[in-house]
Amino acid sequence: MARTAQQERTARQFLGDLREEIRTHAGVGHSILGRMKTDPRSRADFQVLAGQHFPLVGNFTRYMELLLLRAPSSEAKCWLAKVLVDEYGERSEGQDHSEHYRKFMHAAGHKLGEEDTVPLHPEVVHFIREHYRICTEEPFLVGLGALGPGHEWSIPAMFELAVAGLRKAGFAESEIEYWTMHMDQDQDHGAWLEEALVGYCETPQQREQVRKGALLSLDARERFWWGVTDKIAAATTRRSVPGAGATSDEGQLTLRQLRAKWRIEPRLVEE
Q1: From the centroid of its chain, how far is CA 156?
Q2: How many folded domains does the chain comprise?
Q3: Cα(186)–Cα(188) distance, rounded to whole angstroms?
Q4: pLDDT of 195-223, one tens digit each?
């Protein structure tokens, strides 16, 4: 059944309100980002950030692939598939986004081949685990809210602040292409998403599920940024006071260990 003009107006009003709610969420305007222009970070700080953020980059396509399998129709799959094509490298010289991110990691001081051996703050692990849970256990529209509005509408704003800090820290434009590329591509993804979501935000229940997913993702994002802040503070202490904070990484898992520990798969459910 075709949606009515009133349903479309209601859906678009909801999406406009959701955009504003996302823009002002603490996960998007976290203090570590908001002070990039006035309280510049060092390259050493960005080395820490690079190592903590890499697992998010490497797992994003897997979240989307899992959600794509659960999409209820070809129309619902369309937006996810279009974004995945970009993530696989369609508009980035044939290199997927993880490869572009590795270039940044190496510029920040990480050694080739050791990208997945960085001890991860528990909040980084929580972010990854939470998104796998959302994409496999929550209703489809909750997952779409997390990967759609929760990511595609928040990343341009976060990355604009991060890029300002990266430039102040002296990174060359060629070293931060991952960040600047997303500022452009995710604007497109966000526009595609809005058109896709209009047809999935017609009822109060649908709208609540989309909003729930977006806020679950952003709450995890806020916790992620606090984890990064904590790791930077610990690294700064170690540099300033040799031997201090030497055990701060104790018990923290690396991405390589997580991959060996976790098995992530869609499941058949019989009712």
Answers
A1: 11
A2: 1
A3: 5
A4: 778 888 989 999 999 999 999 999 999 99
